[in-house]
Amino acid sequence: MNENALRLPLSTRAIVGNEEAVHLIEQKERLESALLQRDAPLSLDLSKAFLETIFKTIINDRVAEANTNLEFGPLFRAVKDNLDFSENADINNLLGLLAGQIVNVTGQLRNRYGAASHGDDGYHTNPIKMVEAEFIASSVDGLASCIYKKHKETLEPEVAHRLRY
């Protein structure tokens, strides 16, 4: 299989030009590595972690004295409160619903079937399959790309809360 076949193409393009966001890039590369290694349970853990990193990056850029010590769902809601998916209210609402489902299902799958989320019996066989983990990773790739691009397009430098040199 081509080494780049499972890369996260949308997220890769979205974070171009942000080479100083080392942790964000590392999280994306960890997820890509788990996909290439065909480690479905770890891919679930890293899909959630990658989204959390995207969320925290956006919140820290947009909110003075941001609280990023939130659970996954409230962290996403903080992003939704500070970033529109679309200028059109109906599209914004519908995309917010879709994004919320991706966040919710990713979190549930990670909690139930992730490799690092909870310890299991030594004889436990994880039922998550690679095709399912790839579906989640692809959904996360699309969501991460969309909100990070929207974030970069709409962040006004004069109100950004992260210092850039």
How would you describe this structure to a colleague?
There is one protein chain. With 165 residues, the protein is mainly α. The mean pLDDT is 89. Helices cover 64% and strands 0% of the residues. The longest helix is centred in the middle third of the chain and has 25 residues, at 89-113. Helix 3 (40-62) packs across helix 5. The chain has helices spanning 9-14, 22-36, 40-62, 72-82, 89-113, 130-154.
Detail the topology: elements first, then pairings.
Elements: H1 9-14, H2 22-36, H3 40-62, H4 72-82, H5 89-113, H6 130-154
Mind summarizing the main beta sheet?
none
| Uncertain residue segments | none
Please tell me how large the radius of gyration is.
16 Å
What series of H and E elements makes up the topology? HHHHHH
Tell me the strand percentage band: under 5%
The count of helical stretches stands at 6
Number of E-type strands: 0
Helix content range of the residues, please? 55-70%
Shape field: globular
Helix/strand-derived class?
mainly alpha
Mean pLDDT across all amino acids: 89
Short description:
The chain is mainly alpha-helical and 165 residues long. It has helices at 9-14, 22-36, 40-62, 72-82, 89-113, 130-154.
